[in-house]
Amino acid sequence: MIRLGLLLLVLPVIVLLGVYFWELGDVRACQLDGGHWDYLASVCRDTPQPFVSWLERSPLLVNGGMLLSVVGLVMCMIGFYTKSR
């Protein structure tokens, strides 16, 4: 139970950070070229675009990942609390 809990605790965070930094790389490349990033369409535009948070664009990914991490934490706590056989 501890191994599965640790996997559920760490893996969603790594996936969320990977997706976040992938998008951040596209945003930075767009800004360095003098453009403005359209967060809803995920394309570089010439006109300024409003900022839309990642939580508003992908609520299932963000909330689901955090929920899986909490489940993993609970599983780790239960695994450490119970005696091993």
Report on the biggest sheet. Answer: 2 strands, antiparallel
- Count of extended strands: 2
Count of alpha and pi helical runs: 3
State the helicity in percent bands.
55-70%
- Work out the radius of gyration: 18 Å
What would the average pLDDT be, to the nearest integer? 93
Supply the helix-strand structural class: mainly alpha
Judging from the principal axes of the Cα atoms, what is the shape?
elongated
List the helices and strands and how they pair.
Elements: H1 2-32, E1 36-38, E2 43-45, H2 54-57, H3 59-81
Antiparallel strand pairs: 1-2
Helix pairs in contact: 1-3
Description of the structure:
The chain has 85 residues and is mainly alpha-helical. The protein is 68% helix and 7% strand. It has three helices and two strands, in the order H-E-E-H-H. The chain has helices at residues 2-32, 54-57, 59-81; strands spanning 36-38, 43-45. The chain has a two-stranded antiparallel sheet with strand order 1-2. Helix 1 runs antiparallel to helix 3 (59-81). It starts with a helix and ends with a helix.
Brief write-up:
The protein has helices spanning 2-32, 54-57, 59-81, and strands at 36-38, 43-45. It has 85 residues and is mainly α.
Which labels suit this protein?
68% helix, 85 residues, mainly alpha, 3 helices, two-stranded antiparallel sheet, 2 strands
